Amino acid sequence: MNKTNLQIWLFYICGKKRLSISPHNLDYFQTHFVGHQMKQNWRRPPAEVRGKTLRLKDFVGWMFQVPVCSERAKLALEPIISHCAEFLPLILIRGINYYAINVVKVVDCLDKKRSEVAYYDHNPKKIMAIHSYVFLKNKIENVPIFKVPELDSSTVFVTQKFVDVIIANKLTGVSFADPSINRWDYVLGKREPNKVAGVLT
What we know:
Elements: E1 8-12, E2 20-23, E3 47-50, E4 59-63, E5 66-70, H1 71-81, E6 85-93, E7 96-103, E8 116-119, E9 127-132, E10 145-146, E11 157-159, H2 160-168, E12 175-177, H3 184-187
Antiparallel strand pairs: 1-11, 1-12, 2-3, 4-5, 5-7, 6-7, 8-9, 10-11
Helix pairs in contact: 1-2
């Protein structure tokens, strides 16, 4: 595939009526899941399951920067993303092990000139928020899942190779949004996040 034609998606867990994991402490994510390996010293953080009676899917919501997947999804994805991410045991739900995916591949590929980037008034060089993303695709090679260094690696992106595994294994509970569109359109329900045919949300 021509790298300039590489399709990149924003990894997204959406939906109001779905099982999810409640963060115990938002401050925890300031120093965890920020693009660094954690497997060696990993300790499961306290977590609470919400919507326990709802349908159980392969991906459940926790935080934007931390996909959480089932054992089945782990087995399908590990062969293609093990060089980019760690699977950390997180929680047992109805007898099924779920894993936090710690993405450690951080690629400096954000095209700041073409992306919608908001800077602080008092420091015009410091990024306050990124509303939409455009990438320098020639910097991404054989990278099925990654983060960018801006904003402490708070968002997960995937390429078509990752999506193909999701579709082939009929994994459920995940959406793939167009990162060039303002993500608040998805959060506020103005747009449907999933842009890929064949994905079982």
